[in-house]
Amino acid sequence: MNYFIRGVAVVATVGAMSLLAFSLPSGGEARGDGGGHDLMPRQTNTNWQQECGSCHLAYPPSLLPKASWRRVMADLDAHFGENASLEPATQADIQRFLEIHAADSGNSRMGDRVMRRAAPAAAPLRITETRWFVREHHEVSRATWSRKSIGSAANCAACHRQAERGVFEEDTVKIPR
Q: DSSP code of 86?
């Protein structure tokens, strides 16, 4: 009888643990390997990665506040000079993801850093317009940004070789010639 009760307890425990494991969000947050303040949280969302990442780096949501992402997603037919229109369900999924993980959502250290430097009620359209970005990149000259190998300040991956993994640490930067 004792073995029967122990068996039931083991099965119940395994079942509860399995239920807990499968109820946690998939993907989740990945951080670089150093755990420092310069690491960017990288959230996963299939539509965000596929749709945004097909034209440029799928920028981490924690780099802009919710109001900025709303502005960006509201004007996809004229997305920085390109038509980036999406099916309504896909657009809603990406917007929800961006807002949940936005700088002012309070769930990332990077977002906290961005918001500490943000003007009250600021909703910049571009990450490069945030005070945080300007401060972090103040030593980069216009001539460097305009190099053919970089193109613009929006091309994070040109210098941050691990940007697609969400790693923006200074020691991983290599500015191309």
A: -
Q: Is residue 123 part of a domain?
A: yes
Q: Is 12 domain-assigned?
A: no
In the chain, the largest separation of any two C-alpha atoms, in whole Å, equals 80
136: containing domain: 46-146
Q: For the whole model, what pTM was predicted?
A: 0.75
174 phi, psi to nearest 5 deg: -140, 110
Vertex 140: Cα angle to 136 and 145 (nearest 5): 115
Q: List the structure tokens of 82.
A: 């390109």
Number of domains in the chain: 1
Q: Residues of the chain with pLDDT > 70: what percent?
A: 76
Structure confidence by residue, pLDDT tens digits, 81-138:
999 999 999 999 999 999 999 999 988 888 998 999 898 888 999 999 999 999 999 9
Residue 60 lies in a domain: yes
Residues in the chain: 177
Within-domain flag for 120? yes
